Amino acid sequence: MSKFRFGAYLMVLAFILIITGCSSSSEQAAAKPKTSGLSKDEISNEAFKDMFPLQYNSYMKNEKMADTKYSGSVKRSKYDPDKEPYLPILFNGYGFATEYNEDRGHVYALEDVKNVARITDKSVGSCYTCKSTAVPKMIEEMGEKYWSANFKTEIFPMGEKMGHSPIGCSDCHDPQTMDLRVTRPSFVKAMERKGIDVSKATKNDMRSYVCGQCHVEYYFDATNSEVTFPWDKGFKPEEMYEYYSTIAKEKGFEKDWIHNVSGTPMLKAQHPDFETFVEGTHGKAGVACADCHMPYERVDGKRKISSHWWTSPLKTMKSSCGTCHGDRDIDKLEARVIEIQDTHMKQLHKAEDVSINAHYYVNKMITIGVKSEKVKAAQEHVRKAQWFWDIVAAESSAGFHNPQGSMDSLAVSIEESNQAIHIATEELVKKGVDIDKLKEEIEKAKKAVTGEKDNFKKKTHAINGEFPAQQPAVPAPPKK
């Protein structure tokens, strides 16, 4: 090539680079969200509507979130068929024995937390933490007082006055830049204790962290009711259980409630989606929550956005699963997911059933006067057994987020329940108890619960003359 032709070639190449560079810059500028006009303290979802109509409309699809086999989005009436009829026994003495509903979309967060029977006159601000966009500003203004403030008389009215929205835009995005952000201090503190600085997280990490600030296991601190994550020893069920048995206990937290059937100090697992996922195959491979639950979608055949319809990936498999598993038949992938979930739910219900039996065996130990040290030994197995099945039951994927880990957890649960029953059986036989008759009475109690048509009354049948209540009596109020 001559020097002239080579020089001309370089000039043309430079011209092309200039043109494409300018074009690229223009496209990037056009693609960058325009957020001028929004305050840094904006908490209303509707304020984002005009600026981001496609994302907002996608978010509002959560109003009619389609059901899958193991999840739903329709609030039950108290007479609707009960998919989990034994929970009034398993959670007896706790709010979850009164009302528990199918999953509903985030748009219903405020409505549901305000009306659910588990919220009482004694409920605290912590119950509001992952339901409202007003929470970050409220914590900023109230400080530590937020956590223990009365839910009904202080917190919810204050949120309404501030113009709160159900969990939404500002919870995950900076209103001025639209950058992803973590707004719940409990997540930041828990990660700090693990040596992780959330402020230095990658964008891919943030696409899970924004979900992980709420879709997690937690408890209320014994001193001020602050939402606290039990992650210091790790994310696995056994590591969190060890945390509760040591660190939490040393700080004054022993239990969520005392079981009304067995008298056992219990732990209630919440919704450990983040912990289960990060320990599973997809989490360890660097997949983010948003990859599956917020896949990219074309709107009107033109714009490409991240879906804000937070539904099961089974409803969006082509974009949620097909992006990485393009070599697999989508129908076969779906069948495999359902097979995993079916297997886990079958094992979960088995673990729950054995757990119920263990509660009643311990009840009988108490009522006939078995030595307290034997009762306490059986109760520890009961407590551990229920934790290990509940951590699977409270998680949203029916085992799919971590199939092997979840099955391992259910195996531990069944073993622990059987250990409790073994201890009880030895002691009951010494006292002359007819074990076959005991089993018959347990089955009668189960049938009385499942036979009750009013879901709110099911819990009352879990205890009877054969199995009296074991919660401490509530002291009478002082006389005036």
Uncertain segments are 1-31, 474-480
What is the N-to-C succession of helices and strands? Answer: HHHHHHHHHHEEHEEHHHEEHHHHH
Helical residue percent?
40-55%
Give the biggest sheet. Answer: 2 strands, antiparallel
Task: Give the overall silhouette.
Answer: globular
The main sheet orders its strands as 1-2
How far apart lie the N and C ends?
A: 106 Å
Question: How are the elements arranged and paired?
Answer:
Blueprint: H1 3-31, H2 53-60, H3 87-90, H4 109-115, H5 135-142, H6 145-148, H7 151-162, H8 169-172, H9 185-193, H10 203-212, E1 219-220, E2 227-228, H11 237-250, E3 257-258, E4 265-266, H12 273-278, H13 281-284, H14 289-293, E5 296-299, E6 303-306, H15 317-320, H16 330-367, H17 372-393, H18 403-430, H19 435-451
Antiparallel strand pairs: 1-2, 3-4, 5-6
Helix pairs in contact: 16-17, 16-18, 17-18
Structure description:
- Helices cover 49% and strands 3% of the residues.
- The chain has helices spanning 3-31, 53-60, 87-90, 109-115, 135-142, 145-148, 151-162, 169-172, 185-193, 203-212, 237-250, 273-278, 281-284, 289-293, 317-320, 330-367, 372-393, 403-430, 435-451, and strands at residues 219-220, 227-228, 257-258, 265-266, 296-299, 303-306.
- The chain has a two-stranded antiparallel ribbon with strand order 1-2. Strands 3-4 form a two-stranded antiparallel sheet. Strands 5-6 form a two-stranded antiparallel ribbon.
- Strand 3 (257-258) and strand 4 form a beta hairpin.
- 39% of the residues are buried.
